[in-house]
Amino acid sequence: MTAQSGSTDLSITVEDGVAVLEMRRPPANYFDELLIGRIVDGARNLDDDPACRVIVLASQGRHFCAGADFSGGDFAEDRVGAAGRLYRRAVQLFEGRTPIVAAVQGSAVGGGLGLACAADFRVADRDSRFVANFAALGFHQGFGLSVTLPEVVGRRAAADMLLTARRVGGEEALRLGLADRLAEPGQVRAAAVELAQQIAANAPLAVRSIRATLRADLAPRVRQALDHELAEQEVLWATRDSGEGIAASLERRPPVFRGR
């Protein structure tokens, strides 16, 4: 049985115990408070839907998610306020009861990496890219990555990704544990659904109980980290280096940082 719902930028389909939440802002699938709120509300509603046992978080187009769009919208007008509102919604994603598998095709960049790391599992292919590009933009990481990235790959690998801001490809992501499955090229979503079906085939009460034990302290830790991340971002967004980093990214040129 298939059920469908959603909005213009998020669709929700439920079939055979697996719900697919698809972001529909191609090609980069930039998010804002509105889209994150819809993802959160969709996931929370699915928590109470007996037809759903596992969620696949996917996206339309070439890339999984490039995070926030600094070229326009709320992030251009009031960056700190927009980030604070977004984080207050995002933390609710960590409080959900249903396992989530992220289907990461293309790139998961910045906050998009944070969104991918909010999931229990990530499926990628060799062309996927995971990028913690915050230092290259001149500011502190957000979306709870201070907790989730070390949790997934370990402290040293997380420091490597955050301090170098380099791209991590699908094969390296698998070695690091950042990707849990490596699909054939172009088959990321199908592989993510397959993993979700394996989970959904098990006793749902047991699956939720085991997951709740494994993630018992995650949401409180993320909530605390988000407060710290936002405070650091507020300071660094006011610096010239951050202005240079964001401008250079939008202009597709190397940044020139001065340490001020």
Short description:
With 260 residues, the protein is α/β, with parallel strands linked by helices.
Walk me through this protein's architecture.
It is a single chain. The chain has about 260 residues and is α/β, with parallel strands linked by helices. The chain has a single domain (about 1-185), classed as 2-enoyl-CoA Hydratase, Chain A, domain 1 (Alpha-Beta Complex), CATH 3.90.226.10. The chain is about 50% helix and about 20% strand. The protein contains twelve helices and ten strands. The protein has a seven-stranded mixed β-sheet with strand order 1-2-3-4-5-7-10, with helices on both faces. A three-stranded mixed β-sheet has the order 6-8-9. β1 and β2 (about 10-15) form a beta hairpin. α1 packs parallel to α3 (about 80-90), α3 runs antiparallel to α11 and α6 crosses α7. It is globular, with a radius of gyration of 18 Å. The mean pLDDT is about 95.
